[in-house]
């Protein structure tokens, strides 16, 4: 092979090497482009919001009437915290509730209900139906009368009216009076100054909400005046 042939051969190999290198670079660039596109697509998809927050650990319910309200509050918070799951089927709420009735009389009651559900001899058309039966089984039969007595004895005295209403409406939820009954209690239990201001109005309020609004208004004025 003469020098010309060697030169041509070297030139051909150089061209081939350049072509191979170009193809390799193009392939790597294509791969990098695809990877960047995949990363951008992932970043463009918003993260799904968590359906659950941080709720305090629930305690097993033992059937005590005095613990019933707390148990129902805890159930409500859990159901609201995961509406996607518990809103899909009311039986999910019922099963969850039964799983926390593990002690004393509550365990016996839950065992009977669970057996009925398992044997298809019991059925609940809604969570509200089950909840009503739960309350009926464990409520304090004397609670209403006890709360009415507390409400009768509750006086505003020198406390702020806002503080007075915290306790008043806590008892109001259970006492079972009608609106006129609650207004009558307000008249008897109010601070004399606030009551006098309300009766000095041209139109004395006739609804519970109006009485509450005026009470808060006049009590606030009194405390501002005393501060001066």
Notes on the protein architecture:
This protein is mostly helical and 228 residues long. Among the domains are: 65-138; 143-227, no CATH class. Helices cover 71% and strands 0% of the residues. The protein contains 11 helices and no strands. The chain has helices spanning 3-44, 68-81, 83-86, 90-99, 104-118, 127-138, 143-153, 161-175, 179-189, 192-199, 208-227. Helix 7 packs antiparallel against helix 8 and helix 10 crosses helix 11. The model is unreliable at 42-51 (pLDDT under 50).
Descriptive key words:
11 helices, flat, 228 residues
- Return the structural class: mainly alpha
Specify Rg, calculated over alpha carbons: 37 Å
Strand percentage: under 5%
Principal-axis shape equals: flat
DSSP strand tally: 0
Q: In brief, what are we looking at here?
A:
The chain has 228 residues and is an all-alpha fold.
């Amino acid at each position: 092979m003469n020098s010309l042939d060697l030169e041509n051969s070297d030139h051909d190999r150089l061209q081939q090497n350049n072509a191979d290198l170009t193809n390799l670079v193009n392939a790597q660039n294509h791969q990098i482009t695809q990877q960047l596109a995949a990363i951008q697509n992932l970043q463009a998809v918003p993260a799904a919001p968590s359906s659950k927050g941080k709720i305090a650990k629930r305690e097993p319910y033992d059937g005590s009437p005095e613990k019933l309200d707390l148990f129902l509050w805890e159930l409500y918070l859990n159901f609201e915290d995961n509406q996607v799951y518990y809103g899909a089927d009311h039986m999910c709420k019922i099963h969850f509730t039964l799983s926390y009735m593990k002690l004393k009389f509550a365990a016996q009651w839950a065992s009977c209900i669970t057996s009925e559900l398992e044997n298809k001899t019991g059925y609940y058309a809604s969570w509200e139906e089950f909840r009503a039966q739960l309350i009926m089984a464990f409520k304090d039969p004397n609670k209403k009368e006890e709360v009415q007595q507390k409400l009768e004895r509750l006086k505003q005295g020198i406390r702020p009216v806002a503080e007075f209403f915290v306790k008043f409406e806590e008892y109001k939820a259970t006492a079972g009076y009608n609106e006129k009954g609650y207004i009558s209690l307000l008249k008897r239990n109010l601070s004399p100054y606030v009551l006098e201001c309300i009766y000095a109005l041209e139109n004395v309020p006739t609804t519970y909400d109006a009485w509450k609004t005026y009470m808060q208004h006049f009590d606030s004025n009194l405390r501002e005046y005393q501060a001066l």
